[in-house]
Task: inverse folding
C-alpha cells in the first residue's frame, strides 16, 4: 500500500529542504518514490537539481481552453485521456524517484470539471508508488480541493519561533475544518541550536503538537543552496541528513 507524506509550513522554515532530504533518504533506501511539488513557488525541482520542468498547471490550462473553446474538428475528444497523457508526459524521471510539479494557481474561470478529472488520475497514479512525498504550501490548497485525497502523515516544518509553532497549530485546525483524510499530524523543528532546543520542546508541549524531530542548524545546507548544488548531494555525515534518517525511521521506514 502506498504511503503518502505531505510536508508544509510557513515560508522560510526550510520545508522544501526537509522534503528534499526525505526524498534523498527514501530514494537511497530503494523505495519506488513519487515526489510532488504542490507549492505554487515551485522550489523543489531546483532543490533536487531538476530544471525546466513542465507542470500540471500547464496541462490544466491546455484542457480548460479545449473545454471552453472546443475544436470543430474534434468536439467529442476524450478529455480524461488527454489530461492523463499530459500528466504522464510531465512526470520527470530522476535518479531514484519520479518528480511531478503541480505548478501555478488556476487562471480565470471554473476548473471544477478539470479538477475532478485530475483527482481521478492522481488517485490511480499514486497507487503505482511505494511512497509519495508532497512539498505542499501552507494554505494546503491542493488538499482543500481534494486533488490529493488521503494523507498518511502531514508534517509541519517550523523554526524556533512562536509564530512558526502557531502556524503549525493553525494548519492542524485547518485540516480539521476541511474534514481531510489525514492520518497523523507531526511537527519538525528546523534550524535548531543547543540554545533553543529546550524552548522548542516546551512550545510543542504547550500546544500539544507531536514533535517528530529537531533538525540542527546545518551550515552545509546554506552552502549548497548558495552554490546551487542539489541537497540530494549532501554528504552522509551532514547533521541534517542524520536527523532525517531518525525521522524517517519514526515514520516507519
Result:
Amino acid at each position: 500500500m502506498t504511503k503518502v507524506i505531505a510536508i508544509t509550513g510557513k515560508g522560510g522554515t526550510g520545508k522544501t529542504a526537509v522534503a528534499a532530504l526525505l526524498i534523498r533518504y527514501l530514494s537511497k533506501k530503494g523505495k519506488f518514490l513519487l515526489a510532488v511539488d504542490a507549492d505554487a513557488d515551485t522550489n523543489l525541482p531546483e532543490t533536487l537539481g531538476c530544471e525546466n520542468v513542465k507542470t500540471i498547471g500547464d496541462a490544466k490550462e491546455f484542457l480548460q481552453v479545449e473545454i471552453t473553446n472546443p475544436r470543430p474538428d474534434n468536439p467529442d475528444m476524450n478529455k480524461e485521456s488527454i489530461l492523463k497523457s499530459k500528466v504522464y508526459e510531465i512526470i520527470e524521471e530522476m535518479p531514484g524517484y519520479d518528480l511531478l510539479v503541480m505548478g501555478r494557481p488556476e487562471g480565470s474561470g471554473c476548473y471544477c470539471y478539470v479538477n475532478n478529472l485530475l483527482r481521478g488520475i492522481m488517485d490511480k497514479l499514486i497507487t503505482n508508488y511505494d511512497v509519495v512525498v508532497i512539498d505542499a504550501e501552507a494554505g494546503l490548497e491542493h488538499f482543500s480541493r481534494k486533488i490529493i485525497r488521503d494523507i498518511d502523515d502531514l508534517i509541519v516544518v517550523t523554526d524556533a519561533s512562536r509564530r512558526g509553532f502557531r502556524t503549525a497549530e493553525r494548519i492542524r485546525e485547518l485540516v480539521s475544518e476541511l474534514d481531510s483524510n489525514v492520518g497523523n499530524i507531526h511537527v519538525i523543528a528546523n534550524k535548531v541550536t543547543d540554545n533553543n532546543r529546550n524552548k522548542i520542546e516546551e512550545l510543542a508541549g504547550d500546544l500539544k503538537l507531536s514533535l517528530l524531530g529537531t533538525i540542527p542548524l546545518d551550515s552545509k545546507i546554506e552552502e549548497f543552496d548558495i552554490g546551487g548544488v542539489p541537497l540530494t548531494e549532501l554528504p552522509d555525515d551532514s547533521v541534517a541528513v542524520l536527523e532525517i534518517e531518525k525521522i524517517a525511521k519514526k515514520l516507519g521506514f
Summary: Residues 3-250 form a domain with the Rossmann fold fold (CATH 3.40.50.300). The CA atoms of residues 43 and 189 lie 20 Å apart. The longest strand covers residues 181-192.
